[in-house]
UniProtKB/TrEMBL annotation:
GO molecular function list: RNA-directed DNA polymerase activity
Annotated keywords: Nucleotidyltransferase, RNA-directed DNA polymerase, Transferase
Chain ranges of the Reverse transcriptase domain: 1-82
Protein name: Reverse transcriptase domain-containing protein
Domain of life: Eukaryota
InterPro entries: DNA/RNA_pol_sf, Rev_trsase/Diguanyl_cyclase, RNA-dir_DNA_polymerase, RT_dom
Signal peptide: none
Length: 119
């Protein structure tokens, strides 16, 4: 689905909610075009992951192998680092902002604000 269409993110999210309605908040969370399967134990997480992948297969939902990460203890979700310790700022995004040249033009200020407004 092309995300440049104005209604695409909302439509995609409604589709995800319809497909995974019985799993959301119990075994997985959906965030825009990201979703995460979770559990307190490895074995249970494996079971939840298997159910989610089966549901994807049953509904012909294609996943990107480049963007998929399985059985990790922390990861980047919507530009934030998520771990058992909670939510943190993604250091890579902060590094980009700190390395930007000082803006001296309107275009430079817009560029800086575009990067900085994420947080």
């Amino acid at each position: 689905m092309p995300f440049w269409l104005c209604n695409a993110p909302g439509t995609f999210l409604r589709c995800m909610m319809a497909i995974f309605h019985d799993m959301i908040e119990k075994t997985m969370e959906v965030f825009m075009d990201d979703f995460s399967v979770f559990s307190n134990s490895f074995q249970t997480c494996l079971s939840h992951l298997e159910k989610m992948l089966k549901r994807c297969e049953d509904t012909n939902l294609c996943l990107s192998s480049e963007k998929s990460h399985f059985m990790v203890k922390e990861g980047i979700v919507l530009g934030h680092k998520i771990s058992k310790n909670g939510t943190e700022v993604d250091k890579a995004k902060v590094d980009v902002i700190t390395k930007l040249p000082h803006p001296t033009t309107v275009k430079g200020i817009r560029s800086f604000l575009g990067h900085a407004s994420f947080y």
